[in-house]
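Troubleshooting log. The previous structure file for this entry was overwritten by mistake, so regenerating from the original sequence record. Sequence copied from the archived sheet and checked twice against the printout by T.R.
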Amino acid sequence: MIAKLRGRLDAKAANHVIVDVGGVGYLVYCSGRTLGDLPAIGEAVALHIETHVREDHIHLHGFLEPAERDWFRLLQGVQGVGARVALGLLSALGPVELLQAVAMGESRVLARAPGVGNKLAGRIVQELKDKVTHLALGPAGRDFAVVPQGPESDAISALVNLGYRPVDAATAVRAAMRELGQETDLQSLIRGGLKELAG
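Regenerated output below.
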């Protein structure tokens, strides 16, 4: 099994790249997020790989961050989510955003991804809600491993309903809570969160 590729970025397409490793070109499917963060053609690149072996093909899926690879694996454990849908979700939402959406039951956020309808989004939330805290989120996401409760959760949900991304809403509400105190009421948290987002 291939777990990691380190080489030179040889080519980039809409949904995959070719990585030259010692003269051998590996075709690796990637999410839009990973594709957007890759270096220029000809530069060095290292990808965490998930290998899919089936009767009719061997596909490599590559990710710059282990957290994205972990979500790719986890999402495919949900009935109706294959590699293409999982990559679509990871193109629309980053690992921290996925964690927030699933942990807070925001299935409509997941439904924005290509190939994910409301029914499938609801199933993803239902099946993964209790499984997400073990994921390797890295330093930027560790603060989100604790699922918000009470007024904090309600304030985040209110901001998400106003159209803000879950990760931005959570960051703003937590900043407001630090400034206003743990016992702050819901309305104050929402106002404080909006102030943070506007600032």
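The mean pLDDT is 87. Archived copy saved in two places this time.
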